[in-house]
Design a protein that fits this description.
This protein is an all-alpha fold. Helices cover 64% and strands 0% of the residues.
Length: 206
C-alpha cells in the first residue's frame, strides 16, 4: 500500500485492516527511532518508547482527525512517551541559559534565522572526524538540554515541523514556540562549543 497516505492507512486500520497498521510502523520506523534515540539518549529506551507510541496510536486511532497530518501526531505521542520515560528515570538535567552565545546577529546586524544560528554557533568538527564520533557529540549536547528545549529542538529542527505544527501539537502559543526554540538553539550551540573545545593535550573534550 505504498501509494496510500498515512491518513488513509490509519483510516483503513480503523476498519480492521491489520496490514495498514503494519505499513505505518514500517514507514516511520527508522525516522521515529532516530528521533527517540536523540530524545532519550539510549537505544534500548528508544525502542521501548517506540512500541509504547504505536500502542497509543492503536488505542487512540478513533480519536484522530484524518483531516490533519498523521506524522506530527505520531511524533508528539512519541515525545510525550519519551518525557514520561525520562521522568521515571529521573534523568532530566538543567542548564543555565543565561550564558552568552556569540553570533546571534547576522553580518548586517539583523537577527539570524534558526538555521543561520545553528550554522554560526556550531562549527563543524574536523572533516576527518568519524561520523559516529560526531553523532555521539551531537547526542551529548542534546542530552544536556532541559526537557522542554530538547523536545522543541528535535521536533522543529531534526524533524522539520513548522512553527505552527509545533504550536498545534504541543498546545502552546506560536510566540512561545519561537522564544523557546531560540533558547533551545542557543543552549545547543553552547553545548556544542563545549563538546568541540580542545583540551590541554589537543584532544576534543567529551
Amino acid at each position: 500500500m505504498p501509494e496510500l497516505s498515512d491518513e488513509q492507512l490509519l483510516e483503513r486500520h480503523r476498519r480492521g485492516d491489520a496490514g495498514a497498521f503494519e505499513t505505518l510502523i514500517r514507514r516511520h520506523h527508522d525516522d521515529l527511532l532516530r528521533f527517540l534515540i536523540r530524545l532519550t539518549g539510549d537505544r534500548a529506551a528508544a525502542e521501548d518508547v517506540f512500541q509504547e507510541a504505536f500502542l497509543q496510536v492503536h488505542v487512540s486511532a478513533d480519536t484522530f482527525d484524518t483531516a490533519r497530518r498523521f506524522k506530527p501526531w505520531l511524533f508528539t505521542i512519541a515525545a510525550n512517551k519519551g518525557r514520561d520515560h525520562l521522568r521515571k528515570k529521573a534523568r532530566r538535567r538543567t542548564l543555565d541559559l543565561s550564558a552568552p552565545v556569540p553570533g546571534n546577529a547576522g553580518a548586517s546586524g539583523g537577527a539570524t534565522s534558526f538555521v543561520d544560528l545553528m550554522e554560526v554557533n556550531c562549527d563543524q568538527p574536523d572533516a576527518a572526524m568519524d561520523e559516529r564520533e560526531r553523532d555521539a557529540m551531537v547526542q551529548r549536547a542534546v542530552d544536556r538540554l532541559p526537557w522542554t528545549l530538547r523536545e522543541i529542538l528535535l521536533l522543529a529542527y531534526f524533524q522539520r515541523l513548522t512553527y505552527a505544527q509545533v504550536a498545534d501539537e504541543l498546545d502552546i502559543p506560536l510566540g512561545t514556540v519561537k522564544s523557546r526554540l531560540h533558547a533551545a538553539v542557543a543552549a545547543f550551540a553552547t553545548q556544542w562549543k563545549a563538546e568541540n573545545q580542545p583540551s590541554d593535550d589537543g584532544s576534543i573534550d567529551s
